[in-house]
């Protein structure tokens, strides 16, 4: 892997994340929010309905190592249905790394699902490790799962600003990593709550007409970000953008 910006030279995912402590930057009414996503060159967020064919080994390493830095990891129901998550940190070494950094061994897994139409047979729910918090409109109880699941019932629209406020003030989440999908990124950006975007640019053109873009949903105005870091490995670009202040 080589860093292109700043200070060009050889690097690694560990070097890129050295000293990265997003939990030191919470706001009073919301956590620090970083989003990690992958895009194709033609701006698509999936191939054949999933992301698995888009990111190569450095992208996966980045995904897993970012998870060791945040109090909570959030996804939308569409992502859970497509990707069928397992335990967020399945590797005991990753959990040990978190504890050394003063974090809980497992990040809180957060899902937003209006309809509660989720794959409860996925390993995130069957593994038994970690904790899951679901924001939903549905009035039914969640099925019995090995992993503890708590529902936050919301009457009316689930507003992302209220989700973030709840996470910060009721769950002590200082730093939140969002792994998508496109509709959740749209809501975070529209709410002015996107602090940082880790974007892997896969050297792939798909032309898949039905695939979403990495951000779906209207924005009142374009969001301009600053590129703060750029690295390359095996033809993939690893860009990190921060919100322009
Ligand atoms: N390229 C990437 O990095 C990346 C990352 C993640 C996902 N993806 C891809 O994106 C696709 C899924 O896209 P998506 O936009 O459907 O994903 P999404 O944003 O994860 O999920 C959208 C769904 O989440 C629920 N939801 C989100 N916000 C809500 C709110 N405020 N109120 C109520 N419900 C809310 C709704 O589900 P209910 O129907 O349950 O109410 C909604 O249909 C998949 O193909 C996945 O592979 C790509």
Task: Produce the secondary structure layout.
Blueprint (H helix, E strand, L loop, with lengths): L1 E4 L3 E2 L2 H5 L14 E8 L17 H11 L4 E5 H7 L8 H9 L7 E5 L10 H4 L4 E6 L12 E5 L6 H12 L3 E4 L3 H9 L5 E6 L23 E9 L2 E8 L2
Parallel strand pairs: 3-8, 3-9, 4-5, 4-8, 5-6, 6-7
Antiparallel strand pairs: 1-2, 1-10, 9-11, 10-11
This protein binds NADP nicotinamide-adenine-dinucleotide phosphate.
NADP nicotinamide-adenine-dinucleotide phosphate (NAP) binds next to strand 3, strand 4, helix 3 and helix 7.
Describe this structure in words.
With 245 residues, this protein is an alpha/beta fold. The protein has one domain: Dihydrofolate Reductase, subunit A, CATH 3.40.430. The protein has an 11-stranded mixed sheet. A hairpin with a 3-residue loop joins strand 1 and strand 2. It is globular. The two termini are 30 Å apart. The relative contact order is 0.23. The model has no long low-confidence stretch (mean pLDDT 97).
Low-confidence stretches at least 5 residues in length (pLDDT < 50)?
none
CATH superfamily: Dihydrofolate Reductase, subunit A
Mean pLDDT: 97
Bound molecules: NADP nicotinamide-adenine-dinucleotide phosphate
Helix percent band: 10-25%
The main sheet comes to: 11 strands, mixed
CATH architecture: 3-Layer(aba) Sandwich
The CATH class label is Alpha Beta
| Cross-sheet strand order for the largest sheet | 2-1-10-11-9-3-8-4-5-6-7
Shape: globular
Please give the domain count. Answer: 1
Secondary-structure content class:
alpha/beta
